[in-house]
Specification:
3 helices; mainly alpha; single chain; 0% strand
């Protein structure tokens, strides 16, 4: 498995059997994603969620560990 760090975001593809999901961002979060111009790409908000999932699946994922720790604190 390879990481996608430092690579351009992929265009969303229409996957057979794809499950539509809604993620609601508050206005500040939405503007923040829209202004990630330092990456050189305009990010689709759905692609941001997909990229976070890909990053969390990497073997050395600090992100996955951080999400698990946050879930434990939130659910405790």
């Amino acid at each position: 498995m390879t990481t996608t760090y430092g690579t351009a975001p992929r265009r969303a593809t229409k996957a057979e059997g794809a499950i539509p999901t809604t993620v609601r961002f508050d206005p500040g979060e939405s503007r923040e994603i829209d202004h990630w111009e330092q990456t050189g790409f305009r990010w689709d908000k759905a692609e941001v969620v997909r990229e976070l999932l890909r990053m969390a699946r990497t073997p050395d994922s600090i992100l996955c560990d951080a999400l698990a720790a946050r879930a434990k604190r939130t659910c405790a």
